[in-house]
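COMPLEX REQUEST
Ligand: (3R)-3-hydroxy-L-norvaline
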Amino acid sequence: MKKILITGASGQIGTELTTYLQSVYGHDQVVASGRHDDIRHHAIYEKLDVLSAVQLIEVIRKHQIDSVIHLAAILSAQGEKNPEALWQINMNGLYNVLEAAKETSAAVFTPSSIAAFGPETPLDHTPQLTIQRPRTIYGISKVAGELLCDYYHHHFGVDTRGVRFPGLISHEALPGGGTTDYAVHIFYKAIETGQFSCDLGPETFLDMMYMPDALRAVVELMEADPAKLQHRNAYNISAMSFSPSQLAKEIQKHLPEFRMDYDVNPVKQAIADSWPNSLDDSCARAQWGWRPEYDLSAMTSHMLKVLGSRSR
Ligand code: VAH
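STATUS: Structure written out below.
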């Protein structure tokens, strides 16, 4: 990658990815974009609505973009409240990005998610290739997105790549409208009030990943030898699997007074129950050398250290 456009750059991933890509490729090699004027990071910025195909091509040509990291999307829980809006953004937005990539020869990274699996999928150590019948509009958009990206690669030669992200935990931009958001908010509340009310049940196991691992995965996949990529869209990648009760216990190792109770959100619980408990990421490990660096203990320690230092 030499000149990179990030869509959805003000979101949970985009905020940190912009800074990370600047550190890897140089400040002027990264163009952040979003639908709004606000920009949380010091970057070259374009106000860009991915529903405008013309605008997309204009920005790609203006900055001579060779790689698009397409993050603009609505997440799972938010999508269930407005499935039509999700389909517009997640599918028509992706379609426009792929069409623009076809016209400009740009490569495309767009994330899929563990949400691309459903209740009929083997939920433990979920294989790379398996049944994908998600029950959420978000999951359906992710499966359709995986297939659309593969189609643009096989039929038009577009260099499309992606990973199935688990729940992502970060200390910069808060997540918005996801089912796994509890795993971020818990840290802020543990520091601010010492108490957290979790909207998923105590034994709800989900695959999770610390943001530094997720950011590195984007770069490592995009820089991987294309000849070795048998799956492209999209690779299972995993770092840890834990339940809310396990996360609370890990936080209490640092903050013994921390207390958690449960106020289960039935919509989010049903979504989480349909997702894998853990993923098999052996294909990503074999084909492009994927390795996580943060486990539950390391992530918890680092999150509390960063957030704790801010609150002083
Ligand atoms: C969500 N954070 O909760 C996203 C993610 C695996 C979960 O796709 O919708």
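REMARKS: Residues 75-76, 113-115, 138, 166-167, 175, 178-180 surround (3R)-3-hydroxy-L-norvaline (CB under 6 Å). The mean pLDDT is 96.
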